[in-house]
Amino acid sequence: MGETIFSKIIRKEIPAEIVFENEMVLAFKDIHPQAPVHILIIPKTIEIETTRDIDSSKHSDHLTAMFEAANKIAEDFGVSETGFRLVLNCGADAGQEVYHLHMHLLGGRKMNWPPG
């Protein structure tokens, strides 16, 4: 995996509005929000480009940490009870722009189905 903007955010070389951080996960506000609450959640200590690159024997702890962070962030932002959406895009046709695994947490408004 090559250098991404997320790598620079993890190293604090680029500013981001960080809302959650622990040893495995970093979460920050999206600069182009698609909902009143739009947070990106990324693994800090491993490099995974897309969901196709996930290996359960190597990445399960990080994936669990991402979902646990999402639940805490949803609670912190007041959308835990009303509902929120978690999105993982995989590849260009799905809208993935940064090839560093990341989860979008969207909330604070009624979500439509189907998306896109």
Task: Please characterize this protein's 3D structure.
This protein is of the alpha+beta class. It has one domain: HIT-like (HIT family, subunit A). It is 23% helix and 22% strand. The chain has a five-stranded antiparallel β-sheet, covered by helices on one side. A hairpin with a 7-residue loop joins strand 2 (25-29) and strand 3. The longest helix has 21 residues, at 56-76. The protein is globular. The N and C termini lie far apart (27 Å). The mean pLDDT is 95.
Summed up:
It is built from two helices and five strands, in the order αβββαββ. It has helices spanning 5-10, 56-76, and strands at 18-21, 25-29, 37-43, 84-87, 103-107.
Write the CATH homologous superfamily.
HIT-like
Q: Quickly give the CATH architecture.
A: 2-Layer Sandwich
Order of helices and strands: HEEEHEE
Distance between the termini: 27 Å
CA radius of gyration is 14 Å
Features:
116 residues; 2 helices; HIT family, subunit A; 23% helix; alpha+beta; 22% strand; 5 strands; single chain; 5-stranded antiparallel β-sheet
Task: Walk me through the topology.
Layout: H1 5-10, E1 18-21, E2 25-29, E3 37-43, H2 56-76, E4 84-87, E5 103-107
Antiparallel strand pairs: 1-2, 2-3, 3-5, 4-5
